[in-house]
Amino acid sequence: MMTSPPPPLSRCNALELSTVTKRGKKHGLVAYGMDRLPDEILIVILSCLNLKEAVRTSIISRRWRYLWRFTSCSLEFLNQWDGNPGTWVEPTVFLSWVDQVVKLHQGPSVDKFIVHCQGITDESPNRICDWIRFAMEKEVKVFELDISCHDFPDLNKFLSISREVKPSVDRIGLTSLTSLRLVDVNVKDEMIEYLLSSCRHLEHLCIKFDNYMKKLNVLSSSLKSLSIFYCTKLKSLTISAANLLSFVYGEASMSPVLKLQLQNVPLLSELQLKGPHCGSFLFEPSEHSKYSHQLQRLVLNVPMLDVVSAPRHDHSLFGLPQLQCLKQLDLILHARAGESFLFFVLLTTACPFLSSLGVMMFYDSLASKEAIATGLRRYNRAKADLTAHGHPCLKVIKLINFAGYRSDFRFALALLQIAKSLEKIIIKSGPGFLGAERITTVRERAKQLEANLPRGAELLIVSDLQIGSDLRTYHEELNC
């Protein structure tokens, strides 16, 4: 009887090789002809797998035992607590394993070298130096370190390592790098500036929780995205990047006042800000007019101090941000229940092509009776003006953590008043700790909003988290 040929070898078929029994070797590997392939081909196949999958194939036979060391697959070491003790390893043990793999690997190149390790780790002064040396030798393109209590080497040490790796080459360092992400790894200004000038293919740079940088000049012709979070000593940030598309900046309330200058960013289309600097963007629009007019996507995580200040801001005197090209606006507002959000309704009128508005509200306390009364008077006075500001392009409104307070209800009502072309308003009520009385209020408010919908628009009330996924991603990312 003739037997049918084995199915084509796929990535899933290759994965099966790591759990083959003795009988499976005879019928599986022989059937695929894998045992007759040269080592070079097997290494190419293994390079399609991730590190864990490639190492698992070492149990197939003696011949396969060391093949994974020669692969060019991505080396990703992830040790993050997810609530399951079985998936987390004690940090010192985990990092020792990373060091061991680095020593054993003999392949010519590695595309990605990523180490994420949550928890307190030992401060080994040579560890990051060894990893940098490895990244240089393997011409790593994506380099990510997320470990606490470690310092990136200073420029002199970095150049010394570079000369050891490539003593006869003019261009030294991480010259193949396209993406660099450092979290909880302290690095100095001059080191980042050197990397920006020497890594001509660097497109993505992210630095979080740094305690060394004070005055950073970002000068790059290749950089496309830049993220700076919680650099506690950073006082000055100057950016000149002709191809920059996205900039994210998050600062803590206790950070020093930042002098931020975006001098040459003609392609910047996405901006995300968290913290006190939001106030400058909202209330000092002239300081940001060189680039605000070209933004297409804007995310503002506004602290309570600026939300409280917004009703007192005289936009007729100081103006609103110039957002002529903006299509998507996401606001994360920290407020006292009852505070007026009217300013943020007016903000949408500065965005003539805005099509999507998302708002996530967090209430830290209850506003004073005086503040609530003032907000109501301002709202009543502004009703007529809002009618004149009919928004021609706003199609979708998302309100997350809607609690039915007078402030967020009037906010929603005002948005419905100006959104003449609205197609959908989506409401997700507040977190699960809302009491039964507040939930009833939310439902009543929703019915009132439904009665004020523009013709053809629909109102959706959702209870799952999916609708707020984008905003929650921004909130988690900006709050780390």
Automatic annotation (TrEMBL):
Keywords: Membrane, Transmembrane, Transmembrane helix. Residues 31-67 form the F-box domain. It comes from the Eukaryota. SUPFAM superfamilies: F-box domain (SSF81383), L domain-like (SSF52058). The chain crosses the membrane at residues 341-363. PROSITE patterns: FBOX. This is F-box/LRR-repeat protein At3g59200-like. It comes from Coffea arabica (Arabian coffee).
